[in-house]
Amino acid sequence: MPIDELSGAVQYVMDLLGIFAFALSGAFLAVRKDFDIFGTVILSEAAGPGGGLFRDMVLGVTPVAFTDLGYFFTPCAAAAIVYFGHRLVHDDKVREGRLFDASDAAALGLFSVTGTVKALDHGFNIPAAVTLGCASAFGGGVLASLLALEMPTLLRWNHDLYALPTLAGATSTALLHHTGLLNVGTAIGTALFAFGLRLLALRYNWRTPRSNFWRNPFAGMRQQPPPANPAPAPTPPPAIEADTVTLPPMDADQLVQRRDDTLRLKRRPDPRLLLNRPAKRKTDDREQTPPKQPSED
């Protein structure tokens, strides 16, 4: 099938499915962050058409999200389903992020194909089309994570494979177009291939290798896990007579400082505080201290 036919109704349906899947992932993220309904809708709108907006801006065309109401109401429907779904909100899968990862994986597979197809339709070469397809798949999730004050999964080494499934889907789409084998069936199969690769990475915890700097035992000690069997601390050597110092006895009476030897500093009061100070009553010393009565033996 020619690419013009693939980029028509088939791409529109795949775009809506990808937007719905990305919007679900944004809504799940908002529910886990305890956002209100407006925050959930905003995160769904950012995660859904976010990557497509970046793609259309690079292509120099009017973003479809501003001309087609389907691109606008699809994230709203996803946000309403997640926010008002009582079982979804209180489900352990939502709290653990498994539904978020599954919907995000489906959107990655779809947008890696549709973004690459649209770039090829506008005359981009294979490397540029693959790059734009990956960017359109990454953009929505990265924008939603930044709005939720989370580190995007794309940039984290301790998360399962995220960029590689998208890169595989976009590269396969570009190669199929170059060989003339790109049609509806191969496009859907490529999206399922990227989706399945992402699910396998989630299932078996496939990750990219860490940089050599952080794997070096002499660098990044705070990030290194503690050893399973730590070595016992070395015992200090016994003290010898040459290392010890004997102090002469001291008299405790020499350390006592008499009150007469201390210098008392008398501070003069501020004259401004004496203006409204009431006058002291002049009483006889004998009235202040009553006489001591003799004790009767």
Automatic annotation (TrEMBL):
InterPro entries: Gly_transporter
Biased amino acid composition, Pro residues: 224-239
Keywords: Cell membrane, Membrane, Transmembrane, Transmembrane helix
Subcellular localization(s) per the UniProt record: Cell membrane
Positions of region (Disordered): 217-297
Topology with respect to the bilayer: Multi-pass membrane protein
Transmembrane segments: 12-31, 69-89, 126-149, 184-201
Ranges of residues in domain Glycine transporter: 13-84, 103-177
Main localization category: membrane
Comp. bias intervals (Basic and acidic residues): 256-271, 281-297
Similarity field: Belongs to the UPF0126 family.
Name recorded for this polypeptide: Trimeric intracellular cation channel family protein
